[in-house]
Request: fold
Amino acid sequence: MGAAVYRLPPPQGDDMKLTNKLGLPDALVAAITNDDYSRGESDISVTQLIAPPRKIVLEQRHADEIEEDAADRIWLLMGKIAHGILEKAASTGVREQRLFTTIGGLKISGAFDHLSLEDGCLSDYKVTSGWSVKNAPEKSEWGEQLNAYAYLAREAGYDVKSLRIVAICRDWRMSDATKYAGDGYPQYQVAVLPLPLWQTGKQYDYLLERATLHREARDGGELPECSAEERWEKPGGWALMKPGAQRATRILQDEDEARKLARATKDMTVVHRPGVSTRCESYCAAAPFCSQAQKGKVAA
Reply:
């Protein structure tokens, strides 16, 4: 049961290992393993470019040591299935076309999901969490990714006039839609999110900055530390909790203020919540080899 080790193709890593600890059916594991994605003849893809240089370089350096389990990649399979169906369904416009440009000493490639030739709308499909949609204004990566695609499309001669994310919420719940109706939670299982389209000069400057960071990290320089935003850091604090409640009424940064409010309301308790770097803890394969991530664990 579950002892087999498979090899993942690029871009996950030249020799990254995929385990099957739950003994999932071979067809399911094969679907996860047989990834036909390719960044083409390029140095880096847009998806890698917007990611932290530290993460990408460490994943490449330790590819033969990194293991992931098939059960932890089901979310990726769901995205592949949705993209495959949507790609076949699109009868007009440009879809899944890989484009290239060279900036900052790196050849960059990217493939947007769909570009309408009628109105110039560039779309990207995301199979994601309803909470990601709720927090979409904070997710700068989506805007950075689509503006990078827009630059590549313009370089190829396409007229891009607008950007949007079409988000399919894999964990959407009617109860959450009702409870958080006024707080940005999607009211349906799909949400269409327009994103700001940058001027071409701003797009170029962004790509140049990212390409320079990645090239310098690859060339053996000191790896830049990931920022709090790149670590998807959720700051700690002092939570005010009602008896029996699972969610905090409020989270404050100051302990004295939290305890003062708790005393004023009488039925509240104060619970300390340590900060957490979500990407480091759950979404970065390089974390075991990252001194910054390990230092954060010790601090926590």
User: Anything to note?
Assistant: The CA atoms of residues 207 and 246 lie 42 Å apart. The longest strand covers residues 121-128. Confidence is low (pLDDT under 50) at residues 5-14. Residues 200-218 form the longest helix (19 residues).
